[in-house]
Amino acid sequence: MFPEYDVIVVGAGHAGCEAAVAAANMGSKVLLITMNMQTIAQMSCNPAMGGVAKGQIVREVDAMGGYSGIVTDHTMIQFRMLNLSKGPAMWSPRAQSDRMAFALKWRKMLEDNHSIDFWQEMVSSIIVKNGVVKGVRTSMGIEIMSKAVVLTNGTFLNGVIHIGEKRFGGGRAGEKSATGITEQLTELGFEAGRMKTGTPARIDGRSLDYSAMEVQHGDENPTGFSFTDTPRLENQIPCHITYTNEKVHEILRTGFEFSPMFAGRIQGRGPRYCPSIEDKIDRFADKERHQLFIEPEGRDTCEIYVNGFSSSLPEDVQYKAMTYIPGFKNVKMFRPGYAIEYDYFPPTQLQMSLETRLVKNLFFAGQINGTTGYEEAACQGLIAGVNAHLAIHDLEPLVLARSEAYAGVLIDDLVTKGTEEPYRMFTSRAEYRILLRQDNADIRLTPLLHKLGMHNLDERMARVEEKLKNISLIRKHFTETGVSPDLMNGYLRELGSAPLNQQVKLASVLSRPMVSMHGMMDAVPALKHYLSAFDDETLNLAEIEMKYEGYIQKEREMAEKMSRLEDVRLLDSFDYHKISSLSFEAREKLSRLRPRTIGQASRISGVTPSDISVLLIHTGR
To answer: Sorting pLDDT into bands at 50, 70 and 90, what band is 621?
Structure first.
């Protein structure tokens, strides 16, 4: 009935979809298995992509040939570039998506790829022979063989939904949980744990009084995520902001005795940076109010997502509390918020390629690794899909350095440090933020994936080469062309910047605080004429590269210095227990985590600088 596939991907959420297209576009024959073909790429929680650090990840996924950025650009209803008041390392794109259109566009793009087949059923176990994965077994007992398997089960592994004292199995509202895989993997020697996440109520936007809320519009000139030619966003839909108050908190507290979280019925750890509303008013009892974002689920629906009001309290308590939120007096609820508990596997059991240490050619990606968020899942899925293809051809895996991508930071954090709570990416987790900007993701990553053989990157690579050539021309013009005081001083005085006393190079003026390339263009007609040949994306990138050249060079030097430790490989056969000069904790953790390099070993909690010195001596350094 089935041929043998190169790669089977289990689960069709954000990780699974990216894994499938990545493996297929590398040249593998892929089978994508999902429990429900109608929920492919479902936005289970908020209808949005991107945000601080998350937006950088979506840009990276796009640069590596993934589809999340393209799908978002085709289906978004609002776009905002966050943190524009800060430096370019912090600029983060975020889009409000049309939830139904998003899933539909993803499915269409998957179906357009003829290297991907589909099967709708639950996978109950994997087939393993002599420590190598050979395929999967479904709930109907069908065995489907493959050379590699990527598990992207999301919140479905033994998922349990909690609403007040109600408790029932489910991987998502209205969908059953997946069973069998956790039990088999633990029998094979894997360690499993439990995590918890939650979602707010969905409400009827027709029942809200938006005049009682603040309006939040999108950017006046929206851009997007993809480096390809995606449609320009028109007719943006506003979001709104409102707040809880003491009356809302008082009502919510009446449900605390029925809370599955406070009563101890939920054992899994929840996301630290996205707590439920009951957790917020308990932990921050001194705060009189909490901000809520009222987010439309799409253009053609009245369904609203109440961002900031995640809850697992009884549905009547949720509803009553909401009626006291400004603008919510006559609110109608579609369904209550809930918490969901699910199995995950501590990611220290993985290699940097996301292949498991215990079973060859078996890869994990997404929430099964303890992460939270569509974006974190998507980048893991892409890396797992690429590496599944490379593994079955006995090729070196794609391992991104921390100085190369936020995706590299995320995977290194997971594999090296592990996580005991849902892991979310922040800019603060990256040491090289000025190198890992959202504007240069294609320059950083497209050449890497193109060289590996990603089929859909030929045109993108030509764009990158053209962009690099144009940036070089712009920089050359700025460093070689002078500007006179009479042309520039009017603009400088407007900014409160010291006037010029003599002709200087354009680059010297651009390096000043508050001076912008577009401001200089308005002041110098010849410059405006020269730069009119270049698109805004190239101009912005050239400006950042020149304006922050000193900071960028300093981070590059720091990254190169650290990369010397990344170049010192540690053999899998290395016996750390025989090195008595290592601390006991270092011996135990190094033996368990088996870092690939000295650099990775240095980031393991409990491994000290003196332990690293000992390792360098034992590796001949």
So the answer is: low
